[in-house]
Amino acid sequence: MTRHSDPYAAAGPEADGRYLRVTLASGTTVRLECTVPLEGVLRLRLADRPGPRPDSPVLVDAPRRPARLRTTGQGVEITGPGVRAYWDRGVRQGFHFGSYHRFSEPEEAIGYFRSGYRPATRHHRTASWVETIHLNPGAAVYGGGESYQGIDLRGRRRSLRNKEENRAAGRDTAYLNVPLLWSDAGWGLFAHTGGPVDADLGATHSEAARIQIHGDDLDLFLISGDAPTILDRYLTLTGRPHPLPDWAFGVWMSRSSYFTAEEMVATVDELRAADCPVDVIHADEWLAGNVLEAAAWTYGPDRRRFPQDWARELARRGVRTSLWINPYVKRGTPLAGELTRRGYLVRDPDGAPAPTADNPDSLVVDFTHPEARAWWCERLAATLREEHNSAVLADFGEEIPDEAVFADGSRGGQRRNAYGLLYQNVVREAGLRARAGDFTAIARSGTAGSQRYPAHWAGDMPSSWSGLATTLRAVLSMALSGCSVVTHDAGGYYTPDSYARAAVVRRKMTPGEVPTDVEPELYARWAQWAAFSPIMRFHGMGRREPTAYPEPFRSAAVAACRLRRRLAPYIAACAARATVDGGLPLLRPMPLAFPGDRCARDAQLQYLLGPDVLVAPLLEPGGCRELYVPAGEWRQLLGDGVLTGPGWQEVRCAPEEFPGYARAGREIGL
């Protein structure tokens, strides 16, 4: 470790009990506590951090089992179950990290790490730690949470800082960032932080990754293993997904928005008349206020449009309801004034309520304040009881300003990414309180640990072919970061015209005025992909019901919904297995499903759904797709094609066909 620009420590390391003592170039000595919480995992934690550490919601299991430290002629050897690491003396000071069973000498290590420290200065407002990792030639790098640029991050820069997106496909910024980065070379690095992390993953130097962790604290987990092992160990540390009710894996119908309860009933009846199943229907605009104009949950339900017990008519049809919420209140309202007096809002350094970084009128509920948390939890639980809804879309939670001050003394920079995790935790508690667990929330923001609270969706992507491909990249990257149940807005969220018209339509909230806005072939292909996603959920600024689109795309989308009904038991069973130790995420990108298979690794835009369904979404007009077929025979589920692998093959799909295949000889319940 070092200060300023010198990347090397000035003095050799020393073993001091369970601590590693290192003298920095400035003359300052730091101590790192070395523990082995799990087999194959080495934890390095700054022992003498000034001031208290805020409570972290990220970790669920990290036993403090001391590592064994031994000073040698080369430096300090650190060992424990499944771990052998060395901090070298001399010019190449830093960590060689490997598996105890496989690696015995420093030069055989799977990862070479260097650490450095940059204090706060006039030019850099906050301190940061810098980790430099040698990248093996030909190795890929994954993780980071939601990446719209692709699953292999090698050669890229990532800013792991939660941000309300600008709704442009293919950019670096994202709603949900996870400070886990790992390589198929056999190493993983998980930074235990709720704040931003910047990563240069071979962009500046092709064989070096530079990970900058903002803040003056350091808590690292170095993880060894192949892809399934690294993710399994990471999930043991940060938590596995809680189970979802089986109905969550049915067909969710939504648009932004249905404006009355009667419109929702009429939509369900229209779909049923077309023999199109629907299990859940969602409303954004159920409040006495426009959620586009006031991005906050400030008001109660609009009883003119959603009268008391409005959801019972849908329940009689076997359809559950979902409602939009978020963790903000609007400045200048009576509720904002009351919460300010109680001290329930996040504050700025002067003690005034702190707005989100992107909206001066959105004030943030402080979930580190026990009474504020209890109030908000009961508010949501009461809503679930009164409105009889089974689900919520837990929107927003990204734009926490760096200078914000929380009730527990933590600052916005420490909570920027972790606020979404705090939010999702209280949403789950409200669901348990009101519905005994018969409840599902779909969230947008989050970080490490958020996978405990499924599900998450890939945000507001455009209704374009580029938007479809970008969304696929995002959900695959989320899965490689530990998120098991991921979903997306089938059909895309918006077109420029429908977004502009939405502001006009929502002033009156008149049923029947939302337009059909997606190019029909794109709509059908997105609907087909949704049928093979962990959760099938339509949503967008325009109409998203299959019955709104012309033939043959209408029938193709209806057939996809029917297939989803038949697939749902298989998907629910796979999701349940993901909740237990050793369970893989429900959505399995090819590097995770087939570790060590270089051909599969190159198939970056396809995946397995559970162990036995191969999915290669159609990403361009015309129905043509090249995909990698794993070994064995695979039978098409929307169509009658049969593929035999291993190898790359090109398929052509008519409008009613789709590249979704079941492994021959496996029971998936169809």
UniProtKB/TrEMBL annotation:
Is this entry keyworded Hydrolase? Answer: yes
Which keywords belong to this entry?
A: Glycosidase, Hydrolase
Which SUPFAM superfamilies does this chain map to? (Trans)glycosidases, Galactose mutarotase-like, Glycosyl hydrolase domain
Which ranges does the record mark as transmembrane?
none
Give all residue intervals belonging to the Glycoside hydrolase family 31 N-terminal domain. 125-198
Q: From the UniProt record, which GO molecular function terms apply?
A: hydrolase activity
Asked whether the UniProt record includes Ribonucleoprotein among its keywords, one would answer no
> Known Pfam families for this protein?
Gal_mutarotas_2, Glyco_hydro_31_2nd, Glyco_hydro_31_3rd
Domain Glycoside hydrolase family 31 TIM barrel, by residue range, is 243-571
Q: Which residues form the signal peptide?
A: none
Domain Glycosyl hydrolase family 31 C-terminal residue range list: 583-665
In its UniProt entry, what is this protein called? Glycoside hydrolase family 31 protein
The UniProt similarity line reads:
Belongs to the glycosyl hydrolase 31 family.
